[in-house]
Amino acid sequence: MRNYLVGTIGSAVAVSFLILLVNIIVPGTALSMDQHTWTDKEKSILRSLWIGSLGPLPVNPSNKYSGRPEAAALGRKLFFEDKFSGNQKVSCATCHREDYFFTDNLPLSHGIDTTPRRSMPLIGVAYNSWFFWDGRTDSLWSQALGPIENKLEHGISRTMSAYIISKYYRKEYEEIFGPLPDFMEETLPQHARPALDDPDALKAWVLMTPVQRDEVNRVYVNMGKSIGAFVRTILPQPSPFDRYVKQILAGEPIRSRMEMTDDEAAGLHLFIGKAKCTNCHNGPMFTNGDFHNLGLPQKEKGGADKGRAAAITQVLSSEFNCLGKYSDAQPNECPELRFINTSDKKYLGAFKTPTLRSVTERPPYMHAGQFATVREVLEFYRSEAQNPELGHGDLTDEELDQLEAFLHALSSPLTGLAVEAH
Questions:
Q1: Buried/exposed 209-239: b ≥16 CB within 10 Å, e otherwise
Q2: Residue 348: which of 298, 384, 300 has the closest Cα?
Q3: Which pLDDT does position 326 carry in this prediction?
Q4: Do 103 and 119 meet the contact criterion of CB atoms below 8 Å apart?
Q5: Which of 405, 411, 87 is nearest to 262 (CA)?
Q6: For the chain, give me the number of helices (H) and strands (E)?
Q7: Residues 363, 356: contact at Cβ < 8 Å?
C-alpha cells in the first residue's frame, strides 16, 4: 500500500513538473498562466473595447421601420435578390458575401463591372453615422439605394426596381408599407432615373409627372429602408478578446489566460499602448467612424481618389439624406448632417476607419485593396511613422508579430437575421 501511495504521489509530481515544463518551453499554450498584468487605466481601456460595452442596437430616426422584424425579413430577401440588376446576376450579397463577413475577397469589387473601391464589411455597421468608404450617405437605407442605380454595380433604374417589387414582393411590401400605387405600365417607363450619366433614363424620368416620380421614389426608398433594417442585424458575437476582457474585469486573470496566447496578450498591450492603435480603432467596434488620409498608394489608373472631400457635397445634396422629404426624422434628430465638417482640405484623400472585428478573416485591406495581408498593413503603418494620422511608434518585427497575433483574437462568428437560412 505504501509503495502504491509513493508511486501515485510521484506520478502527480511528475505531471505537475511536465505542465510547468510545457509552459516554459511552449509559452502561449492553453496551459500557460497569465503573465500580463493590467493597470486600472488599462482595464478602463479594455472595458471600452469590450463587446459588452457596445450598447443597445441603435434605431435610426430617419427609418421608422429599422427596428421592425418584418421589415428586416423583407430586407433580407431583397439583399439576396439578383433580379435587382441589369444582368439578373448581381445582388447586394454579390459584394457583401455572407460567407466572407459581408464583404468580398477582391481588391476592387465587381458587380456589372469593376468598381473603383473594394466593398466595406457590414459587421456592426448600424453603429456608424456615415456609410461607404467616403461617407457619402448618412443612413443604412440611403446607402442601400446607391449601388442599385450605379452602372458598375446593379445597373438598373428605380422605376424597374418598383416594378420588381410590384411583381415579386407585393404582398410582403404592402403588409409593411401599405398599398403600392398603380404604376400604369403602359405609360410609366421601366428605365427612368435622375442620372446625368444616362441621358435616355434622365429624359424618361423628367417626362414623368411629379406624382409618378414621387410614387416611384417612395417605393424605392422603402426598399432601402427594408434592406437597412436587415443590415442593422449583422452583428459580431464575442471573440476570444472579449472573453479575455470579461474575465480580466471579473478578476480572473488565470482563467482568462486560456482565452488568448502570450503573443496575443502582448499584442493587446501594444495595441492600447505603444502602437497607439486606439487613436483610430477605439470603442467596441474598433473604429472611431472618422475619415483619415493615411498616405496610401494610389491606383495606377483613374487619378487620385479624393475620398471624403468629394463626398461632403454628395451627402448634403442627397434627396435621401436625414433632412430630406423621404426621411422619417425630425430636423433636430439629424445632428451629424446639420453639423457636418465641410473642410475639403482636412478630408482630401481621407477614407473611413473600418471595424477591426474579424479583420484577419477578410483580406485584402484598405479602400482599394492595396494590401493583401494584415502584415503588409502593419509594415506600411510602421513605414509611415512620421504621418500624423498614424504615429504608431518605433515597432520591432517581434512587436508587429504580436500585434498581428492580437488581431486574430478579434475573430468571431456573426449573429442576427444575417445567419438565418435563405
A1: eeebbebbbbbbbbbbbbbbbbbbbbbbebb
A2: 298
A3: 98
A4: yes
A5: 405
A6: 17, 4
A7: no
d(CA 76, CA 131): 19
Nearest-angstrom CA–CA distance, 286 and 51:
10
Burial 16-45 (b: 16+ CB within 10 A, else e): eeeeeeebeeeebeeebebebebeeebeeb
- Collect all residues with Cβ–Cβ distance below 8 Å to 248 and sequence separation of at least 6: 38, 43, 46, 256
Distance in angstroms (rounded) separating the CA atoms of residues 287 and 127:
10
Distances (CA, A) of 38 to 29, 267, 268, 410: 20, 13, 11, 19
Q: What are phi and psi of 414, to 5 degrees?
A: -105, 165
* Residue 254: pLDDT band with limits 50, 70, 90: low
Q: Is the pLDDT score of 15 beyond 70? A: no
Query: Mapping DSSP to helix (H, G, I), strand (E, B) and coil, where does residue 394 land?
Result: coil
The DSSP letter of residue 63 is: -
Pairing mode of beta strands 414-415, 351-352: unpaired
